[in-house]
Amino acid sequence: MYVGGRFVGTDNAETRELFDPATGRAFGRVVEPQPSDLRAAVRVARKVFDESEWPWLSARERANLLLRIATKVEELGETFARLETLQTGKPLRESRLDVEDCVQCFRYYAGLIMQPNGMLLSVPESVHSYTFRQPIGVCGLIVPWNFPLLIACWKLAPALATGNTCILKPSEWTPVTALLLAKVLDEAGLPPGVVNVVPGAGDPIGRALVEDPDVNRVSFTGGTATGLNILQAAALNITRVSLELGGKSAVIVFEDADWECAVDHALFAIYYGAGQVCAAGSRLLLESTIHDRFLSELKTRAEHIRVGDGFDESVEMGPLVSEAHMRRVLQFIDKGREEGAQLVTGGKRATFPPPLAQGYFMQPTIFAGVTSDMSIVREEIFGPVLTVQPFVNEEDAVRMANDSQYGLAAGVFTRDVARVHRVVRRLQAGITWVNTYHTAYVEAPWGGLKRSGVGRELGIEAVHEYTEIRQVQISTVYAKSGFYPA
Ligand code: TXE
């Protein structure tokens, strides 16, 4: 663990084995902290926030620190990328993109924090009234296993830019890059105790973090069921919460779409990250006139995707993160078959000779002939499993896309500009891509509607998430209220 500016151990003798998803082999061990360790880390973060100069540093000083962090992450970029591939299995090209985005994220918030803070309000003349933003306090940052480094940076950069202190809890399956990041923060000159990294299980460590009365804000990315638990636990202390949860995002392709662009992005939308991406385009809606031809090309192209070890530079899709998760995805596929869906391609574990024989690989999978009530259409599978449905017109497409408990993202492929505007407005999605998919810019707010979450990451919105707004009224005259005449 990294607490108070030092790497420390725990009294708990138990440790957790970490597995390489490509080989199924254990490659290391990490401490298994106890709630008392978490409590100690929160106390450190509390004390630094309440008693040190950190929250009061000038924006310029914090911006310089963020720029130094960005440079250090960039210098160690290949190490970060290789460790990310080792613990998640994702292809190196994906890990490298994640690292680039992390660097960009620190640089963006270094710039943003230099912008004016607050507003002068147009209130009656005898009062000078203004607003300003200040850090919230101790932030509990709970990160999942699909983008362990990237999501940590999406949360840390705005939290630090605005002067908070943090407890970062990586997923118990993927704590390695978060711990290396702690070393980088230290070398960049972050004062001890500003960021503390406590790995460990969701329950008890994540839960203890959310329940701790000294934690002022929780920012969580993960599954919707866990998000619900967190919201309930946070309610007891009125802790501020933002949740970035699951999705079941629709990609709509109209007949007039640029064919190559639409086919390519339909594949990218679902198979990037082996489908373990909150915004994965897991429901493909095709205008009925192009349905058969599109599906047949998609099948051919999906069967050509090179699945394998993320360290092989030619690999296009890596394994799933864990054996348990792979089993869960395979169960969804069985259920799809039982419910009467037509398996177009894939549907099985992908097998390779040693050393990959025990890897958690899956074939890129497509189901057609599905109906909107099937579980594979309704629930987040979080694997390389696509469902395909035809629609007859624009109304139908929008209705089907919105027929979901989630509202994270959507994709629209068409050349008709007027239709783009009509459809985008009516879609229930926090993020809508038109003739593209999956790009996440640090400048743009990221988050979902409905059961996909509460609040936004990135953009100026993240500055708001990690600050409280204050208002001040200063009378410019010594006037009486007039309520209690002598
Ligand atoms: O996620 P969890 P799991 C979805 C996806 C996946 C499903 C379950 O559908 O199949 O969630 O995955 C911590 N209090 N997503 O079980 O449990 C946990 O230790 C506080 C979507 O792996 O949500 C980890 O650090 N924290 C998603 C983090 O929460 C708790 C990414 C995420 O784990 C906790 C991952 C608790 N009670 C899964 N319980 C996305 N939005 O990208 C667990 N945690």
- So, the CATH homologous superfamily of the largest domain? Aldehyde Dehydrogenase, Chain A, domain 1
Look up the CATH topology of the largest domain.
Aldehyde Dehydrogenase, Chain A, domain 1
Number of helices: 15
Globally, the shape reads: globular
Count the beta strands.
22
Structural class: alpha/beta
Q: What's the main sheet like?
A: 7 strands, mixed
CATH class of the largest domain: Alpha Beta
What ranges have pLDDT less than 50 throughout 5 or more consecutive residues? Answer: none
Mean pLDDT: 97
Distance between termini?
64 Å
DSSP helix fraction? 25-40%
How many domains in all? 2
Bound molecules: ligand TXE
How do the strands of the widest beta sheet line up side by side?
A: 14-15-16-13-12-18-19
Description:
The mean pLDDT is 97. The termini are far apart. The protein has 2 domains: 2-245 and 452-472, 3-Layer(aba) Sandwich (Aldehyde Dehydrogenase, Chain A, domain 1); 250-434, Aldehyde Dehydrogenase, Chain A, domain 2, CATH 3.40.309. The strands form 6 sheets. The chain has a 7-stranded mixed sheet with strand order 14-15-16-13-12-18-19, sandwiched between helices. Strands 9-8-7-10-11-21 form a 6-stranded mixed sheet, with helices on both faces. The protein has a 3-stranded antiparallel sheet with strand order 5-6-22. It has helices spanning 35-51, 59-75, 77-88, 92-112, 148-161, 176-187, 202-211, 224-235, 259-271, 291-303, 323-338, 375-378, 394-402, 417-426, 459-465; strands spanning 2-3, 6-7, 15-19, 26-31, 119-121, 127-135, 138-142, 165-169, 195-197, 217-221, 240-244, 250-253, 283-287, 342-345, 365-368, 385-391, 406-407, 409-413, 431-434, 449-450, 453-454, 467-475. With 486 residues, it is α/β, with parallel strands linked by helices. The radius of gyration is 24 Å and the shape is globular. The structure holds ligand TXE. Ligand TXE is lined by residues 142-144, 146, 169, 171-172, 201-203, 206-207, 210, 221-223, 226, 229-230, 244-246, 278, 380, 382. The site of ligand TXE has 25 residues, from α7 and α8.
